[in-house]
Write a structure and sequence with these properties.
By secondary structure, the chain is an alpha+beta fold. It has a domain of 116 residues: 3-Layer(bab) Sandwich (minor pseudopilin epsh fold). It contains two helices and eight strands. A four-stranded antiparallel beta sheet has the order 3-2-1-5, with helices on one face. It has a four-stranded antiparallel beta sheet with strand order 4-6-7-8, with helices on one face.
Length: 198
């Protein structure tokens, strides 16, 4: 049985109640909501920048990886291997918009215009889910073919290509470029101060 002090008994006998633990006051609740709002206001833009950077890096590195794979396959198999813009995963497109997807396949015919059949396709990249643009701004390259020595056949008269990736706002901070030389070397670069790749 609980023992109560004489002061508590006197207080209860006068119709009072024993005070309970108090909860949050309205002012405390408003302060917490304000602090959380400030933290969200500061954190959301930073989170958006991080997710955009990761998305851009993933997209350009996806093309770089498939280019390196096509070159390695050409050397390993001793035959030409093509990577080209393709929206259906089977045939090459004349569009320079690499964001619509691409396909990697060995070239059986003399003209690398399409994969011979579905079984010969080595890799397929679907269209980007984002609104990012991945386009060769210099020579409208839609097809890159590596020969058995790892060199590129007929790419812009030996000058190479520069495929640039931009986010929907064309923010130069997110610009990335894939530089392709006629000897088959591949390199991803970031924008310079003028927004172009160096």
């Amino acid at each position: 049985m609980n023992q109560r002090s004489s002061s508590q008994i006197a207080y209860l006998s006068q119709g009072g109640r024993v005070p309970r633990g108090a909860g949050f006051t309205l002012i405390e609740l408003l302060i917490v909501i304000t602090v959380v709002g400030i933290l969200l206001g500061l954190g959301v833009p930073s989170f958006r920048n991080i997710t955009t950077s990761y998305r851009i890096a993933g997209e350009i590195n996806g093309l770089l990886g498939d280019m390196q794979f096509a070159r390695a396959e050409a050397i390993k198999e001793g035959q030409n291997v093509t990577i080209c813009v393709s929206s259906d995963g089977l045939t090459c497109s004349n569009s320079p918009n690499w964001q619509t997807g691409w396909v990697v396949f060995p070239v059986v015919a003399t003209a690398p215009t399409a994969a011979q059949n579905a079984a010969s396709v080595l890799r397929v990249q679907a269209a980007f889910s984002s609104q990012d643009a991945l386009v060769d701004q210099t020579s409208s390259t839609t097809t890159v073919t590596f020969n058995r020595e790892g060199l590129i056949n007929g790419l812009n008269a030996g000058a190479g290509a520069l495929i640039s990736l931009h986010d929907p706002t064309a923010n130069t901070y997110y610009t990335r470029c894939l530089q392709i030389s006629s000897v088959g070397s591949l390199q991803v670069t970031q924008h310079a101060n003028n927004g172009s790749c160096s």
